[in-house]
Amino acid sequence: MDSQQLHQLAKQKRSNREVGITLLISSAILALFLFVPLDAPAPPTPIAAPPTTTAFDRVPIEATAAIVYDLATGETLFAKNADAQLPLASLTKLLTVYTALQYLALDTPITIPREATTLEAPRAFAAGQVFSLSDVARLTLTASLNDGAAAILAAAAAQMDRTPEEALAGAAAALNLSQTYAVNGSGLDVTGMISGGYGSARDLALLSGALVERAPTVAAATTLPEASATSKGGTSFTVLNTDPIVETIPHILLSKTGYTNLADGNLALVFDVGIDHPIAVVVLGSSKTARFTDGAALVAATLAHFAGVSSL
């Protein structure tokens, strides 16, 4: 084969290689058009769901601490500093009555000791008067009587053969009230720096529910505008409720107020939102008047919550 033929053969091979490369490139471009759309839209940007609002979102609360606690399910529906340990004032009387109910029958006679009649008001009794535990407890919780609370605790401590402080501590421990302790049965301030009782909003919700369960008739007396009883000697007593909003709370089961200089305004409520569905509302460290507006606002929010609306 001469040089001219060799040159022609080499030229032909180059031409065939170039054609093959061109075919490969064309095939690749065609595949792009077939399988990867050039104008494919970008994946959609996720849209954030709007925030969920609840009936408790805008409840105006002046209190330092508060809770709405579902006693039937154990669910906390609302909480503000619910585990903070704060002065209880007369909410301590709930612990006093519960302490006595652990060891004394409702018909146990309770004698008013002389030292109880010297306590700070409110008081109603005279030394030596005798009432059933049920009657003195009803009057004491309804009108927040300091002499009645002292008499109840003295009788309970004597029955238990313990000091009053030990008796109160035992009742708090039995209910697992980890933030609660008391040094007297009334909750009166001991000094300008020391309260007669301390506890958290959560503890008081549990305590209030336990008292309703153990002594519903005693608790029920606190839901009326006034309570009456007669001593064993025949003296009749009628006292007014310290809670002015009891008649506005639907299906109320218990009410207890508290106020001292150290505690400011406190309030505990238990009410039913259905058959055997009690809810506890506790307000601590509010003002003397705002404790009631705080409590009413939380009750309204609770009713709205169970109605499935954001407000009533």
Account of the protein in words:
- It is a single chain.
- This protein has 312 residues and is α+β, with helices and mostly antiparallel strands.
- The N and C termini lie far apart (107 Å).
- It has eight helices and twelve strands.
- The longest helix has 33 residues, at 3-35.
- Helix content is 38%, strand content 20%.
- It has a single domain (65-307), classed as 3-Layer(aba) Sandwich (Beta-lactamase), CATH 3.40.710.
- The strands form four sheets. The protein has a five-stranded antiparallel sheet with strand order 2-1-12-11-10, with helices on both faces. Strands 3-7-6 form a three-stranded antiparallel sheet. A two-stranded antiparallel ribbon has the order 4-5.
Descriptors:
disordered N terminus; single chain; globular; 12 strands; alpha+beta; 3-stranded antiparallel sheet; 5-stranded antiparallel sheet; 8 helices; 312 residues; Beta-lactamase
> CATH superfamily, called what?
DD-peptidase/beta-lactamase superfamily
Count of discrete domains: 1
Biggest sheet record: 5 strands, antiparallel
In angstroms, what is the radius of gyration? 37 Å
- Mean of residue pLDDT? 88
The CATH topology assignment is Beta-lactamase
Percent of sequence in beta strands: 15-25%
Short summary of the structure?
By secondary structure, this protein is of the alpha+beta class. It has helices at residues 3-35, 92-103, 133-143, 146-160, 164-174, 201-214, 216-221, 290-307, and strands at residues 65-70, 76-80, 86-87, 109-111, 130-132, 181-182, 197-199, 226-230, 236-240, 252-260, 264-272, 278-286.
